[in-house]
Structures are given as structure tokens and as C-alpha cells.
Amino acid sequence: MASYLYNSLKRIVVGEEDDDPSCLKDPVTMALYEDPLKGLGLKQTAMPWDMRDALRTNCLNLVAQSSLNRRDKPLLPHKYALIAYHLAAKTLKVKKAQDLKRLMEEEPHLFSGRPTDMLQILRPVHCAGVPTNSRVRAGAMLHVIYDDYVLCQDPGDALPHQQYVCKVSYCGRQHFVRRRFSEFKLLHDKLQKELLVVPGFPAADVSYKVGLGDYSARGKALCRYACRVHASLGARGMFSPRLLAFLEIDAARVHIEEDGRVSKMLDSTSQVSGSVWHMVDEFWLKKWRKFVLGRAARRYEPPGPITNEHLLESVARTRYLLTESLTVEERKKRQKELDERATTVPPPIRREARLEFDQRSAAVEKYQTPLEEDSKEEPVQPEPATIGKHYRAINYDLWTYWRMVHGGGPCISRKTKEITSPPACGPGQEAVSRLQRFGRMCISKQQRIAKFWNHLSGTAAGVREVLADAAERRIRDRVDRTLGAARNKRTEGRLRLAARYTQRMWRSKRAYAFNDENVKVMKHAQEIFARADGEVEHASAGAPFVVEEGERIVQVGATEQYEIKFTESDGPSLPIVFKRHSCSELTYVHSVGKDMAMKKGRDQLVPDSVLLVVQSYPVSSLAHDQVMHRLRSAKWPVTLRFSRPLTDNDVTPLARCLQLEQQGELPDDLKLQMLKRLLSKGVSVKKHGSRKQAYDTVVYLNETMLFWRVRDALKQQANSKVRKKKKTDEQQEEVRGLSLKYDLTKGVGLYDLRYVRVGKISSSFKRYASKKAPQDRCLSLFCAGSKTIDLEVLGDVKERDAFAWAFDKIIGEARATRIFVDKAGAPVARSEPKKRLRMILGAH
């Protein structure tokens, strides 16, 4: 109530806010706010069912990326598709961009989920007192949105009560329901008895009975409760019929509509290249057609699991065996139950239709069974299965969808539409599923054989002696291999010591220094001849070539390296924009031309890739200006080597590392390597300083530096983006601005790091602005010159300790490469990475 009064007074005093789409920050969300129908690929005259079809198509295209054959590229990720649908269908009260931003912050569940939520694949749980068909399925896409509250009073009540008006959006269908708080409480009490886990329910408060409570807040909390119940069950593949009935959702009707629509979208008469056909029993298909075509009073039950076992033997023999094992009374009783469950048509009309069907159906005449007791007929000769009569051929997508919804089987796949053709298996997900089933079968057979031998060893006479001898031989062989490996290791160690001694002796002689001086002379001669010709030194085919490269301070996990060869047809200049790292001499790829990125073999070149080699010459020891001069002076063809940036798939999440460490399955060297790769990709932290407020940033690590994003990096990047007009039309395209990783960063060399301490040790954490930082999430890196890097980890104390341990190991590794002994035998500390000369042969 207080917040309502505050907002009302604020509107009176300040006035209404102007629509400001820039508050959304995300450019995709801003574009969808301006025109949501365009985001769904629809025109301005689109109807509600067109929006539902567009959302369903986008969900299927997203599902096809992981579970189905290749389909069209989805228009939007699932989150943005939900935003576009809510805005287009007007399910949310959004008058300004600020309203959308507030909803995305307060109600994030409205814009989250999975693409499979649109599919009717959830099984019902048992609810006492609620009529439920176990074959009915439901979808997980349920959004209950608070709309308003109304004041009502029943004739027998002394005081009025509030009813909360909720907008229910289920699989693209919308309606309103009005419920009291007591009705929600009664639903919660029943769900507690039926479900193992139930989300928390809003607490009751006496202030609402006297009209002093915030009814809007309570209504939103009740709507969120209903959404959480359905989402928690949907994550386990189930739904509550009681909840759907409470929200006035006809799950059976939606199942009928969605099953037919999705099946029509997935069905096709042609096959994807490399895929196979799947056979489905025609008897089951008849029940499915009745189900999806039934409406209103002629609503049929779902067909149940797929009954392909009828196709594994002759059709006539199968039908005969199914009916021969039943007596006349059992057949009549079963037929009566099937007729009563099949439809809601009155019995007289249903009986007349059944008699007419028995007279006209060729299938009944072909597989007619005796109806009189003690009278039997000889079984008819089995006939071959015929397409269109006994089975149908469908594609892999439709088969996978039906298996997800209805279940059953078994899978009968063929290369052609004939069931008599040899079995086949298509590529992609079909092959993966087949291999998984084959692997499980092999494991089960191995376990069965092992259990058989264990049983045999305990029961059969003389088997124990034989197994004991075999086990003794295996142990003896393992001991011999272990002793031999230890012997070889000792011999190898002595040889290594001898080789090391020989190397030290030769290095102490003048011959080694003379050889090193020759390499320096060759390098100097190369530079003199190159300057005389006005070029840079380059290797000739098959000739020795001396290069200078910088050594790494620490070893970070290697990323994928690739080479690209540019010819004169790509000229006159390279279609790549190179820039210098803001706090080092590293050269990286800022942007790539669109025409080049679409060429085969060059699509792997992505922005933020680091340039490593130019024409066989490493650039790690060169400044950025020297690298650019070498690129401009290089002759065609030009061969460049890059290292691509790490992605989420290249690193192990920190939670997984901690889990493996807790289980004792992660050695220290492997743990350090995982944490280095995480830092190389970037770790989100909060950085504290000595002057201003703490800010969110990302810390990066490479072989020579530790660097982080500057304050307001995202804002600076957004301001640096420019739009330029195309030459062909008046449309504009956005040109990439500054790089968050390489343009908007500050850093420090690894040689400048001294030690790391956990907790709030440094003076920066003692400032008033940093006093609220949790003690167990803070750490400080002390650098040369009394400088500190104060970080606050966003996780818990375990994550803080893991990063502190990693930084301590990195500092120790850098210190080991920093100190060296000069020619006079005195210890010297390096201030920059070591550079060395190396001789290579020019490529042919």
C-alpha cells in the first residue's frame, strides 16, 4: 500500500515518464520493442493464431538444432521469441519501454524456458478427485500474469473480499480467471499432499482483511506461485491436472490442436538427404486420426503408445493371435469398453454406426473372428505387409515427435518406404540414438556375462580352481609389467642425467658461445640485406632463416591455432582490421570483412583472434607498429597464423571444477590448467578501488599480462558503435565499435605481481564505499610499487579460495621464469619476457 501511494504521489508531482527505449540497453530487445511482429517474421495485419504459429515454428527450428533433422534457421533465440510474442499478442501491460524493463527485472520467468515447452510432452500426475486421462499430454509453456483485483461480496459474508484477476497464457492461448486468496490456499494444501516438492506459498496477513495490504503485490506473488509449480513439474516431465483445472485450462483440447498442428509441420512427402523412413502401424494411425480430427462432442481419447509390434510378424497372423486368445464374452466386454471410451456420441447412434462399419469394412471381413461360442475357424494365411493398408512411412522428425508425446515403438527404419527393404540408420541424431542403444546393449551383455561367470564360479565343481589359476596368471603378468616399467624408468633417469651433464659441459666451452654469435650475425645480416632492398626479411624456400620470438611467462592452455593463406585476388589490401591491445603490444583482429567471412575455409576467422605469425615469422617479440609494417611489406601470397578466442565450450565451469576437486578426482596440475583457461576466457568479478565506487568488470589472463575491463566499458563500447549507410539502398548497418577485451582494458605485467592475500587486507577495502563487501569473497593482488588489485568474487568462499590458489601458483610460475643467472654467475631479474633467436627453414 505504501509503494502504491508513493508511486501515485510521484506521478502527480513529477509527471509521467517519456518513452525511452534506450533503457533496455540490449539492441535486440530494443528492436523487438519497436516492432515485435517483424521479429516474428509477420506482417502488421497478423492475427493471434498467426503469432502462435510463428512462435511454434521458431520453437521447432530451435529444437531441430539438437534433436531433429536440419530445418530452417530460427529467427530468434527462445528468450527473444517470447519477448516478441508477449509484445505482439499484448499479454503484458507494456505502454513504455520502462514497463518492459521493469517486467524483465521483476518477472524473469515470463521470458525464460526451453523451446520444447511448446510441445505437449508432459505426463499427468495422479490427482485424487480430478478426472484425468493418463494419455493426455500438456505443455510447459504456462504464464500466469496478474492483471487487477476486484472487490466482491457474497450474500452470506459480512465483509467484502478481493478477487484477483489473472491472465492465463498457455501455449499461445489466453483467457482470464478470477480467484480468491483462499482458493489459492486450498489448491496449495491439496498439492502438498500430491507432490513431493511444492514451492513456497505467500504468507497470510490480517492487514488484507481490513483493506490495508498491497493487493497488487499479493496478486503477483500468487501468479508467480502457480508458474513455479508448473515449471518445477515440467522440469521433471510432468504436469498437475488439478492446477490446470484450477486455471480453467482444457489440456485435452490443447493437446488435440497442438498434436495436429505440430505433426502437420513436421510431416513431409520427401526425405532429408541421408535420412531414413520410419514405419508406423496403420491401426494406431487410425486412432490417432480420430483423436486429432475430433472436436466438441466428438472428442476421442489419445491413441496411446505406438503399436509397431504388429508389424514385426505377418499382419493377418498378428490380428488372429490377438483375438484368438480371448473368449466370446471377453471380446464383447472389450469391444464395449472400447466403444464407450472412444467417443461421447449417444449409444443408439454409436451402435448404428458400428453395425454399418462392420458391414462395409474390408478389414473386418478379412480378419473376421468367430462370434459364437465353441465355433472356430482356421487361421488365414499370413499376407505380406502392404503400405497404406498395414503401415505408413513417416520421416524421422515426425517419428521422434510422436515417440516424445505418445511413446511406444519399436523403431522400424528403412532406407525406402517399403518395410521389406533392408534396415537403415540415418546420420545425425538418428545415428547418435542408435549408437547409444547399441552401447547400452553391449554393457548389459557384459554385465550379464559377468554375473553368469560369478554364478558359475560359485556353483559348478572345479571352476574355482580354474578361475584362481587364471587370476594368478593375470596378477603375475601385471607384476612383471610394473617391474619392467620401473626398471626402464630408472634407466631413462640415468640417461637423462648423463645427457644433462654432457650439455652443461659443452655449454661451458667456447664452441657454444661461438655458435650463438653466428646466429646473431646471421640475424643482423638478414636485417641489413632487407633494409637495402627496402623490404623486411623473409624466408626463402628451403633456406635457413633466423627469427626472434618472445617466450611465455606462464603457460596458459593452448587454444586452437589456424593458418589462412591470402592471395592477390583478396587484395589490394587484406580485408581485416588489426588493432593494438590497449595495455600491451599484442596485435588482434578487430573486424573482418563480410565478403571474406563467407568464403569457405575463412569463416573460422572471428574478431578478437590474436595474430601469431606473419609469413613464418613470429610476432610475439615485435611491437604493433613493427607488425603492421611487416604486413604492409609482405608479398603475395601472405600466410597468417591466428589463435581464436576461447568460448564457453572450451572451458570447464568453475562449479564443475570444485565438484571434481571435492570428489578427489582432480589433480592440482589439471585444476590449475582449468582455472587458467577460465581466466583466459574471462571471469566476472567486482573491482574495488581507492577513490571511486566498486564496479563490475571481467578479469583476463594471457601468457604475459593480467588485465581487466575499465569502468563503464559497456557504455563506452555502445557509444563507439557507428552506423553507416549501404551503397545500394538507404538501410544502415552497424559497424563494430571498441573491443571489450582488448580496447577497453587496463593491465599489469605478470612480473609485477608479488603475492596474493584473501580477505579485506588492503586499504581499499577499508574505505566506506567497500565496507559492505563480504569478507569471504574478497582477495587482493599486491604488485610492485605498493599497488594493489582488489577483487570481489561473485561466488562463494570456495570460488574465492580457488582463484586465490590459482593466482598464487601463477605468481610462483612467473617468479621462476623471471630470475636467471647471467654469464658472470650473478642472479638477475628480468623486467620483460625473454627474447630468443631460433633458426627455421623456409617453406617450399
Structure notes:
The protein is α+β, with helices and mostly antiparallel strands. The chain has 25 helices and 29 strands. Strands 23-20-19-18-26-25-24 form a 7-stranded antiparallel sheet. A 4-stranded antiparallel sheet has the order 12-17-15-16, with helices on one face. A hairpin with an 8-residue loop joins strand 2 and strand 3. The model is unreliable at 314-319, 341-351, 359-379 and 510-514 (pLDDT under 50).
Which word captures the global form?
Answer: globular
Number of helices: 25
From the N-terminal CA to the C-terminal CA, the straight-line distance is 81 Å
Average pLDDT: 80
Low-confidence stretches: 314-319, 341-351, 359-379, 510-514
Write the topology of this structure.
Elements: H1 2-13, H2 27-34, H3 36-39, H4 48-64, H5 78-89, H6 97-106, E1 123-124, E2 142-152, E3 161-170, E4 173-179, H7 181-194, H8 215-234, E5 238-239, H9 241-246, H10 251-266, E6 277-281, H11 282-293, E7 306-307, H12 315-324, H13 328-342, H14 347-360, H15 362-366, E8 391-394, H16 396-405, E9 408-409, E10 413-414, H17 429-459, H18 463-507, H19 510-532, E11 544-550, E12 561-566, E13 576-580, E14 587-592, H20 594-597, E15 610-614, E16 617-618, H21 624-633, E17 638-643, H22 654-662, H23 668-681, E18 683-688, E19 695-701, E20 705-709, H24 713-720, E21 722-725, E22 732-735, E23 745-749, E24 753-758, E25 778-783, E26 788-793, H25 797-818, E27 819-821, E28 827-829, E29 835-841
Parallel strand pairs: 1-5, 7-9
Antiparallel strand pairs: 2-3, 3-4, 6-8, 6-10, 11-29, 12-17, 13-14, 15-16, 15-17, 18-19, 18-26, 19-20, 20-23, 21-22, 24-25, 25-26, 27-28
Helix pairs in contact: 2-5, 4-5
